[in-house]
User: Which sequence fits this backbone?
């Protein structure tokens, strides 16, 4: 019998690994791509998320054979991309911007098959946050969940209680839209 090709998750994100595990998929290897994630001139947030997902998958596929899966999540208000929050000040600035208004989260997902075939999907989710008081913001900073997250929040924690409306993919906001990921892996011929 032919040996099954490995699945490589091209991501350092533990959330993406956990989301895959949720649907019974365990990567054989984790191999994060280290890319410059800054937007190109005139690039929209949607284009950025898709380009980075494809670039991460291709970078890892170039050195590791198998099915390579990668994703990238971009949070934006209008065309303004909210970078990953590195500090409490970044988290507070993001929350003030998101308070009481709508924003979008784009997650690009890409799969490169063992024969080098690329397939990708882009998932858009529109969310609205309740108006956040100073007390809400102080509580969020104290919980520390916004650090290292695109847009300065994680929907899978306390910030889940700020969401008054979500149209799109909850798992996409977390970083790996499971319906689209499964479709891409099935389409590429991956069998767990
Ligand atoms: C908006 C949001 C983001 N995030 C996370 C998902 C991603 O890990 C991160 C977005 O940054 P990404 O650059 O997409 O991913 P990453 O740097 O963590 O991992 P890698 O590039 O190696 O794949 O923010 C949440 O966990 N919950 C949320 O609600």
Assistant:
């Amino acid at each position: 019998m032919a040996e099954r090709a490995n699945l490589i998750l091209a991501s350092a994100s533990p959330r993406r690994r956990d989301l895959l595990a949720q649907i019974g998929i365990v990567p054989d290897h984790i191999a994060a791509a280290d890319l410059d994630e800054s937007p190109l001139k005139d690039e929209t947030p949607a284009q950025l998320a898709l380009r980075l997902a494809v670039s991460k998958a291709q970078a890892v596929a170039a050195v590791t054979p198998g099915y390579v899966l990668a994703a990238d999540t971009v949070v934006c208000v209008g065309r303004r991309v909210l970078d990953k929050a590195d500090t409490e000040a970044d988290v507070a600035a993001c929350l003030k911007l998101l308070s009481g208004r709508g924003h979008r989260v784009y997650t690009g997902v890409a799969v490169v098959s063992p024969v080098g075939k690329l397939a990708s999907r882009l998932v858009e989710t529109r969310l609205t946050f309740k108006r956040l008081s100073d007390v809400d913001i102080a509580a969020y900073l104290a919980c520390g969940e916004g650090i290292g997250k695109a847009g300065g929040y994680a929907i899978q924690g306390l910030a889940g209680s700020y969401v008054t409306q979500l149209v799109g993919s909850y798992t996409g906001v977390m970083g790996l839209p499971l319906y689209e990921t499964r479709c891409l892996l099935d389409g590429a011929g991956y069998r767990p």
In short: Strands lie at 7-9, 29-30, 67-77, 80-82, 102-112, 118-129, 163-167. The chain has a mean pLDDT of 96. The chain has one domain: 7-188.
